[in-house]
Write a structure and sequence with these properties.
Shape of chain A: elongated
Order of helices and strands of chain A: HHHHHHHHHHHHHHHHHHHHHEEHHHEEHH
Oligomer: heterodimer
Largest interface: A-B, 57 and 43 residues
Number of helices of chain A: 26
Order of helices and strands of chain B: HHHHHHHHHHHHHHHHH
Strand content of chain A: under 5%
Distance between the termini of chain B: 101 Å
Strand order of the largest sheet of chain A: 1-2
Number of helices of chain B: 17
Shape of chain B: elongated
Radius of gyration of chain B: 35 Å
Strand content of chain B: under 5%
Chain lengths: 574, 375
């Protein structure tokens, strides 16, 4: 017996995968998890090592001004000259990739983001590492998808897979990573990529654990509710967090508008402005520089005076807004948590001072504050609850967290309508579909748009008459049968292909048992649109859930477009 | 931001080629090696920095600078969460700095992960003592004693039990104290230093017979240690066995002559032997004479304690009357007992009025009264 050679076995396997894109996507999600996990761990460790070299223990204070300024100047030049897509957080860029560029992120962007962001954060720029990790992860998924010859749609579907893997490794929060990919990146909690997103998140998390062990990002003492009155204080924290979030987002957007108005020739050194500002702030309070998770942990331990936490919250809001808007590479996840922890610490200190026997220490409030600011700034309330839970592994915080998150989210929503990433995209002239706008559209059901008075073409009608009827109606599709016994649908093309239209009856073209596209009245209109797109029909029957051959109405393309706010001339005419 | 940058189309004719797979394997291997190297470098740097903070923190704690110790040890512990020594000393620093809430939170976290952890329970016990929660403290001391210790478990357990004994002693919980001393004695297994402490504690806390037993054991294992003979002598004195006490003090003196304290003890033993009215074969006349002397001593003790207008002066008058009575020709034991009984009443009145006697002058009377009270 002759055994097949390894090369031929591989060829057969490769051929099999090529022919089954779904299987290839699942296999790739595993590979993406491993690769992204490794890259993100390297990114975090490299940033930490670089920072340790730049700021050795007991180093002189002038370093805190010079290093971020010079660092931002150098990285700013490279960003301007070679890696323009590696600026900023990485989340809006990832969404551009999904919604505009068919999931395309270049290898150059990944490399630029990795090295420049690492240098930038290590130099003390007050931005976070998670957003960039997400873009790096998304980029790796995109590159792998293309190299493996996937279709554009499949490459696009892989991008959130890379995002989840990156966030799981960067934050050590595999569940929140999945939720974030669905809630923020895709804006769809029921996205069909859920399975692959979970696989990559879990794989990446395992890589992280193999390399760095089982350590949560923050170690927090076990907090408990001392008195029911504390729920009220957590609500106050929600209010403070909400206003703090709005202040941060508005300041960032305003500063960014100002920077964008400056001449293009200044773009390469604009990041140095952010670097200099954070350096000056860092001269007085070094804690405000860099990612700052060490200090967050100290505040979570309840170990900072009130004046310090208030100053740190204000300085971080100003510093991060300036660093981001001036065009440095880095995200706002980490700063959101930092700002939230400081605001929470401040509220907790005051509450504990006023009611020492009825409240937990300031650390408990700092913990909740992190989620509160995250929910207010990033506007992903579910992700923020799960993320803080995973970061701290403290179940007792869930209810207070939900209360303050919801309040913060509501205030932020009322005072700053556009979520931050969408607002940043709008400044670029790009409209991204937000989760909220998608939900609003999903709330429009077929039943709201359908025409109830639908009269199917009788099966005994001749094809010639049916063709005339469709042309009169300006439709390419219509229903055939009776209201209680629908045969199916017939298209104009089908009718045009009939040889003897005058002598041929419709029931000879459409049988009573034919299979056809339809929708139910409780379906979202997006599904109707999807099914129309798949079948090329401009009208679909709306049928009963109890009996799909009983007609409840008809939905036509023009009405759906009208519901989306897009009116076509033809649609208006019809 | 290149939102609408030029997008090359995906080449769907490509598939997973062998070269691509090999390249990916190499990239993964390379990244893994890089990560392992970076992680190791990071760990070494963190361990070194944490170690520095830890050493400085311990030094600060030993110098009594609890605030600095808290700061340094927290940094060390934050860097190396797995290091129990860092965590324990951080809690110790928090307790020393009287940051009881923080110490409590940390110790609870530690105990939740390992309720049987000896050092953690010891720290918890010390924390409870600081918070005046003595019942909880005793419970944690016991958990520390029976808990797991990473090294030198037996020595640590002895040390913890001694600490518990000191707590019980300071709180005047005699029964619990004696129970712990018995356990400590059983666990000491020839540990001379511990046995000496145990014997001394027995002696000072109301169990001289057990003290004498332990001192005899110590004498056998270390016959040249005069402290043990002195201890034995004191235990025998406390028990009222003055002759045996004298023998023990003489033994000590023989092994190391010229010790003033020992010679004082010998003198005291002689004095007690001469004053003791309880020996079985003592003649009635001798017993009467000793009883008379004891009555005189009691009278003097009460007289030195009360003021000129004190109602207890009546007792002194009665004593004077009794002492003035001429001894009959035929002296009976009952006469001696009557004087002893009255002497005891005088002593009780003195103790009630002026508190327990501590003066060296009254030591013979004190010892006699203790013996009479137990006989």
């Amino acid at each position: 017996m002759v055994l097949p050679s390894p090369r031929s076995t591989f060829r057969r396997w490769a051929e099999h995968l090529r022919n089954s894109e779904n299987q290839l996507t699942v296999a790739l999600s595993l590979l993406i998890g491993v690769l992204v996990g490794l890259v993100v761990v390297a990114f975090i460790l490299l940033t930490g090592r670089l920072a340790a070299q730049m700021y050795p223990a007991g180093g002189a204070a002038w370093r805190r001004v010079v290093i971020p300024t010079v660092g931002a100047l150098i990285t700013g030049y490279f960003l301007f000259r070679y890696f323009p897509d590696a600026r900023g957080s990485g989340i809006p860029q990832t969404k551009f990739a999904i919604f505009i560029n068919n999931g395309y992120i270049s290898l150059r962007t990944i490399l630029g983001k990795f090295f420049l962001c690492s240098a930038s954060l290590a130099s003390g720029i007050a931005l976070g590492r998670e957003g960039p990790s997400v873009q790096i992860g998304a980029g790796i998924a995109s590159v792998l998808g293309r190299r493996f010859g996937l279709s554009k749609e499949s490459v696009k579907a892989l991008v959130p897979v890379g995002c989840a893997a990156a966030l799981a490794a960067a934050f050590n929060t595999p569940i929140a990573a999945v939720l974030f990919s669905l809630e923020e990146i895709l804006g769809d909690m029921h996205a069909p990529v859920l399975g692959t997103v979970v696989i990559s998140s879990a794989t990446s998390w395992m890589v992280l654990h193999l390399l760095l062990g089982d350590e949560p990002l923050f170690h927090v003492p076990a907090y408990r509710l001392i008195h029911p009155m504390e729920f009220g204080i957590y609500a106050v924290l929600g209010v403070v967090g909400g206003f703090g979030s709005v202040a941060f987002v508005k300041l960032l957007l305003k500063l960014r508008t100002l920077f964008m108005r400056l001449p293009k020739s200044t773009k390469w050194f604009q990041p140095a402005v952010g670097g200099l500002l954070i350096g000056l702030l860092g001269w007085f309070m070094p804690e405000v520089m860099g990612v700052g998770y060490d200090y967050v942990e100290r505040v979570l331990g309840g170990d900072f005076p009130l004046k310090t936490v208030v100053l740190l919250a204000v300085f971080k809001i100003i510093g991060t807004a300036a660093c981001y808007s001036s065009g440095n590479a880095g995200g706002i996840f980490g700063p959101s948590l930092f700002i939230g922890a400081m605001l929470g610490g401040a509220v907790g200190s005051i509450a504990h001072w006023l009611f020492p026997t009825m409240t937990a220490g300031p650390g408990a409030y700092a913990l909740i504050g992190m989620g509160t600011a995250f929910a207010g700034i990033v506007r992903t309330p579910l992700t923020s609850v799960i993320m803080i839970f995973e970061l701290t592994r403290d179940y007792s915080i869930i209810v207070p967290l939900m209360i303050s998150n919801l309040i913060s989210f509501f205030i932020s929503y009322r005072l700053q309508r556009e979520p931050i990433y969408e607002a940043l995209a709008l400044q670029e002239g790009v409209y991204l579909p937000t989760g909220e706008s998608k939900r609003e559209l999903e709330e429009i059901r077929v039943g709201h748009v359908m025409q109830s008075a639908a009269t199917p073409l009788p099966p005994e009608m001749s094809v010639a008459n049916a063709r005339r009827r469709l042309e009169e109606m300006n439709r390419n599709t219509w229903l055939v049968g009776q209201l209680n016994r629908l045969y199916g649908i017939v298209t104009l093309r089908q009718l045009q292909e009939v040889a003897n239209p005058a002598s041929t009856l419709l029931n000879q073209v459409v049988s009573p048992e034919s299979r056809f596209q339809y929708v139910h009245s409780d379906h979202p209109i997006s599904l109707a649109l999807e099914r129309m797109g798949a079948s090329g029909a401009d009208a679909l029957p709306v049928v009963s859930r109890a009996n799909r051959r009983r007609v409840e109405g008809v939905i036509i393309l023009a009405d759906i477009l009208g519901a989306y706010g897009v009116k076509q001339q033809e649609a208006v005419k019809s | 931001m290149g939102a609408a940058s030029q997008v090359p189309a995906a080449d769907s004719s490509n598939g997973p080629t062998l070269a691509l797979i090999i390249a990916l394997v190499i990239i993964i291997g390379g990244l893994w090696s890089l990560d392992v190297f970076l992680a190791r470098t990071e760990r070494q740097a963190v361990e070194s920095e944490a170690g520095d903070h830890y050493r400085q923190g311990l030094a600060a704690l030993q110098r009594g600078r609890a605030g600095d110790a808290v700061d340094l040890l927290r940094r060390a512990y934050t860097m190396e969460r797995e290091n129990r020594d860092y965590q324990l000393n951080y809690v110790a620093a928090l307790t020393a700095a009287r940051k009881f809430d923080d110490a409590e939170a940390n110790i609870q976290a530690l105990l939740q992960s390992d309720p049987n952890h000896g050092p953690a329970n010891l720290l918890a016990a010390r924390l409870r003592v600081q918070e005046n929660k003595f019942a909880d403290a005793e419970s944690h001391y016991h958990r520390a004693i029976y808990g797991a210790w990473p090294e030198n478990a037996a020595a640590h357990r002895l040390r913890v039990r001694l600490e518990l004994v000191q707590l019980l002693r300071s709180r005047g919980e005699h029964e619990e104290l004696l129970a712990e001393l018995l356990a400590l004695e059983a666990e000491a297994h020839g540990n001379v230093a511990i046995l000496k402490q145990v014997a001394n504690l027995y002696l000072t806390d109301g169990s001289p017979s057990r003290a004498a037993y332990v001192y005899r054991e110590l004498n056998q294992s270390n016959p040249d240690d005069i402290d043990d003979y002195v201890g034995l002598g004191e235990a025998e004195l406390a028990q009222g066995d003055y002759r045996t006490a004298l023998v023990a003090f003489l033994d000590a003196n023989r092994r190391k002559p010229g010790q003033l304290a020992v010679q004082r003890d010998i003198g005291l033993s002689n004095r007690m032997t001469a004053l003791d009215p309880t020996p079985r074969h003592l003649k009635s006349a001798d017993k009467f004479a000793r009883s008379t002397e004891i009555l005189q001593l009691s009278r003097a003790a009460l007289n030195g304690c009360i003021g000129p207008a004190d109602p207890l002066r009546r007792m002194l008058d009665d004593a004077d009357k009794m002492l003035a009575e001429k001894a009959p020709a035929h002296i009976t034991n009952e006469l001696a007992e009557a004087r002893l009984t009255f002497a005891e009443q005088l002593w009780q009145a003195r103790t009630k009025t002026c508190g327990a006697s501590t003066s060296a002058e009254e030591q013979p009377l004190r010892l006699i009264m203790a013996k009479l009270a137990h006989s």
